[in-house]
Design a protein that fits this description.
single chain; alpha/beta; seven-stranded mixed beta sheet; four-stranded mixed beta sheet; 10 helices; about 30% helix
């Protein structure tokens, strides 16, 4: 997992000061003593064969190569190595005709978000909590100049590098083993910043909004997607226990409340551009994610509720400028 190209590219950019700290941060984020399974995951990455992809599609889907690029035995070896990183949560990916059918149909979310974005062409983009980087590839497919994703989970980092192994090292997209708290304060460098599926996991919502704002250049665009509840200005659900079987859910505001919070933190022209219930077609168990998923997280007698009796998941997309 080599980041030399990224570090070189950032030397003469608005991120130059951060680039000096990145090697140490990356080493800490990929410490095998801290993450006991990391050595095995890296070994799976090392097993992947080198194959020249006859085609790469990032605009309509993430498809790398075709069935004609390698024989069936090689494809079986690739599938085995990729499955050693199960669970795969964000996708789908198509790697030399291997369909990585992930837990989330992240392409559906992208289709909902994309029409409401400022054009991504030639923009420097940050994707906070990006998982294995699925949306990073789609951002690149829209012509982004460079995409940097951050996620503290080393499993997701290795999954990203598995995909990049087949796409090629020259693509200007990277996923770093960091959280947003690891970025320098008041960076003010990115043209577009995404925070999708992160907000409700943060204990301090205002601090997270301020962290996001500080990463954006003046006039840059925030794209925030999060769980919400139906309600009026001031309405917020703070689950005392779990929400949808998750124990790290803190704040689920109404759309009006979230817009108010965005204004409070100094964002300009915040607006809600999409509201969509999460369905069991969009989030479910698959061959590539074999554990419980949304069908098990909902109330067995009433799918309009979570297992705990809270309103079932509704996700909203908010857009604002710094």
């Amino acid at each position: 997992m080599n980041y030399d190209t990224l570090l070189l590219a950032l030397k003469d950019s608005p991120l130059a000061a951060w680039a000096e700290k990145l090697p140490e941060q990356i080493t800490a984020g990929l410490c095998e003593k801290r993450y006991g399974d990391l050595a095995d995951w890296k070994a799976s990455l090392a097993k992947l064969p080198s194959i020249v992809a006859s085609q790469i599609e990032l605009s309509q889907r993430v498809q790398i190569g075709s069935s004609n690029d390698c024989d069936e035995a090689t494809r079986n070896d690739i599938r085995t190595a990729l499955q050693e990183l199960i669970p795969w949560r964000k996708g789908p990916y198509f790697i030399h005709d291997i369909h990585i059918d992930t837990e989330w149909r992240s392409d559906w979310k992208w289709d909902r978000v994309l029409p409401h974005l400022a054009p991504l062409k030639d923009r420097l983009i940050l994707d906070v909590g990006c998982g294995n980087g699925y949306h990073c590839w789609r951002m690149l497919g829209e012509g982004a100049k460079r995409v940097i994703g951050i996620d503290p989970s080393p499993r997701f980092i290795v999954q990203f590098h598995m995909v990049k192994h087949f796409a090629g090292a020259n693509y200007p997209v990277d996923v770093l083993p960091l959280g947003i708290e690891d970025l320098p304060e008041k960076l003010q460098a990115f043209d577009t910043v995404f925070s999708m599926g992160v907000f409700y996991h943060r204990r301090s919502p205002m601090d997270h909004l301020l962290e996001l704002k500080n990463t954006l250049r003046p006039g840059g665009q925030l794209v925030l997607e999060t769980l919400v509840i139906e309600g009026e200005l001031g309405d917020v659900l703070v689950p005392e226990g779990r929400y949808g079987m998750m124990n790290n859910v803190w704040f689920l505001p109404s759309c009006a409340t979230m817009l108010s919070w965005l204004r409070k933190m100094g964002f300009n022209n915040p607006r809600v551009v999409d509201v969509c219930p999460t369905t069991t077609e969009e989030q479910r168990s698959t061959e590539w994610m074999r554990f419980h998923s949304l069908p098990e997280f909902l109330h067995p007698d009433n799918p309009a509720l979570t297992a705990e009796g809270h309103p079932a998941p509704i996700r909203a997309v908010f857009v604002a400028e710094a």
